[in-house]
Design brief:
CATH class of the largest domain: Alpha Beta
Number of helices: 9
CATH superfamily of the largest domain: NAD(P)-binding Rossmann-like Domain
Strand order of the largest sheet: 3-2-1-4-5-6
Order of helices and strands: HEHEHEHEHEHEHHH
CATH topology of the largest domain: Rossmann fold
Amino acid sequence: MNLIVTDERSHMTKQTLKLGMIGAGFVAKFHARALMQVRGVEIAGITAKANAEELSKFVKANGLGQGIVYSSVAEMANHVDAIAIFTPNFTRVEIVEKIVDAVKKGAALKGLICEKPLARNLKEARRIVDLVNEVKLKTAYFENQIFMKPIRTQLQQLAPQQKTMGKNTAVRTRAGSGIPRDKAAVCFWIWVATALQWDGIASRRLASRQHFCNRFRFQRIARC
């Protein structure tokens, strides 16, 4: 992808947040492209088992930062302000353990970002929360839908009815992938290939349905 980068976007200041990426696959590239529209942040480091050099070239070519490839999480943690985890969910606990260990050894990280789903199950999710709390590392969960204008507009429009109905106690949802029937190959990738990589079809379903869970949780918090 060849893009023209303006001086304004490519200029990095002292206030620029240096982001380190763990993982260099589809999701990492998706976020890298999205960062073209964000000011004040650069992709300063990348560490991954595969495709790290390819992602680094993309980062440099589009003025997104230095995109330095590091050999380990611990090494990168000492050269960035925040880390974003873009690896499959079965790797999350081990990676967060390495990040927390780096912080304990002096890495001055300001925050951690984790792609959805947080973990494969509740036990692992709690382990991750306990780990980041040990070093008081600010952690963000990559959930985009609660920030979408249509979702927030719906909440605002339905606020009077929700107040009348009272507290939510249960929710039932149904949804489809929204993928055309002629895109069979894409469907295969989503439901089979990632299921194998993400440790089971139940985990893949959790990744897809967590949007509803997160919106429901946000809705309850917003009404408190």
